[in-house]
């Protein structure tokens, strides 16, 4: 299927139209996190009414994922009797479809360019990113989170893998839930991946429901600070020039921060229970200069 609103030529025009190059200065490494202002943090803190908090991260495991084959390298170095403590080593390759992780703003490139007009040759090095690494986010993310449950809005348990999510779908979910995505928000979209997998088995990453490219401009217009959910872009994306619109337009053009593969089922049920689809979100990435991303443990507080 083709994206009903975007030709390849229009995708190229979109990349220019949503560009945030120079918006926050030529040396900016935070991208859309700049939308999270002190005032936004105060609004987010005021959302805590019940004191209920929970993680939306997936468990890390040394057992390879049955579909992606990804795993964490976890080794116990030694266990000695007596007062000595056990020690271990953990190695994590965070990117992919298994580990809940935060992408550095210069993780993804398109046509040799990265966020804020930097070139791949100048930034991507064997010893790490020289610009736009995860270290730029060392002060953490503290903002209003919003869940748009697209599957719920459509009255289904889950979307099928060939479903392309449109702007109308996002706005219908907004209307149904009585919430509006605003500047500085962390937006999470639910398509029902876990219920689909419970019914059909593990879903291949090559064929998944997700956002169409027209949603990228919507995220830009709404000034979304962070995007996450159980879906990213529609895959495989039907274009010869842009294979992953959120990664290849959103990140290098907008500086869009992506929080890939959170668990959203408990979040959805909690929103349903409280009849409230907004909450406080906190995320604290590791302080590792040059890193392209980091496994994270996002916390939602109601």
Descriptive report:
With 302 residues, the protein is an alpha/beta fold. The protein folds into two domains: 8-57 and 105-301, Glucose Oxidase, domain 1 (3-Layer(bba) Sandwich); 59-99, no CATH class. The chain is 25% helix and 20% strand. The chain is built from nine helices and 15 strands. α1 packs parallel to α8.
Comma- or semicolon-separated keywords:
302 residues; Glucose Oxidase, domain 1; 2 domains; 9-stranded mixed sheet; 20% strand
Give, in order, the helices and strands.
HHEEEEHEEEHEHEHEHEHEHEEE
The number of distinct structural domains comes to 2
Overall CATH architecture of the largest domain: 3-Layer(bba) Sandwich
- CATH class membership of the largest domain: Alpha Beta
Helix content: 10-25%
- Beta-sheet strand percentage? 15-25%
Largest sheet entry = 9 strands, mixed
The Rg value, from CA coordinates, equals: 19 Å
Mean pLDDT: 94
Choose one word for the global shape. globular
Quaternary structure:
single chain
The structural class is alpha/beta
Given the structure, what is the number of helices?
9
């Amino acid at each position: 299927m083709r994206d009903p609103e975007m030709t390849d030529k229009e995708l190229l025009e979109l990349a220019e139209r949503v560009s945030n190059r120079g918006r926050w200065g030529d040396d900016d490494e935070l991208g859309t996190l700049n939308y999270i202002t002190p005032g936004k943090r105060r609004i987010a803190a005021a959302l805590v009414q019940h004191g209920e908090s929970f993680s939306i991260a997936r468990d890390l495991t040394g057992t390879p994922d049955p579909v992606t084959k990804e795993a964490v390298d976890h080794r116990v170095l030694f266990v000695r009797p007596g007062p000595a403590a056990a020690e271990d080593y953990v190695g994590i390759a965070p990117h992919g479809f298994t580990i809940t992780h935060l992408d550095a703003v210069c993780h993804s490139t398109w046509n040799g360019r990265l966020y804020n007009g930097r070139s791949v040759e100048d930034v991507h090095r064997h010893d790490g990113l020289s610009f736009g690494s995860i270290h730029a986010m060392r002060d953490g993310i503290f903002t209003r989170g919003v869940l748009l449950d697209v599957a719920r809005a459509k009255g289904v348990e889950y979307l099928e893998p060939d479903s392309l999510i449109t702007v109308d779908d996002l706005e219908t979910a907004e209307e149904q839930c009585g919430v509006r995505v605003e500047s500085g928000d962390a937006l999470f979209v639910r398509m029902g991946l876990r219920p689909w997998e419970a019914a059909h088995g593990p879903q291949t990453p090559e064929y998944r429901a997700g956002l169409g490219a027209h949603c990228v401009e919507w995220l830009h217009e709404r000034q979304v600070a962070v995007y996450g959910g159980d879906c990213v872009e529609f895959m495989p994306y039907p274009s010869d020039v842009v294979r992953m619109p959120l990664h290849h337009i959103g990140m290098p053009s907008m500086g869009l921060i992506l929080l890939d593969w959170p668990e959203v089922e408990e979040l959805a049920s909690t929103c349903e229970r409280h009849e409230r689809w907004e909450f406080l979100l906190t995320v604290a990435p590791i302080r590792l200069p040059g890193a392209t991303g980091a496994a994270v443990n996002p916390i939602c507080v109601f």
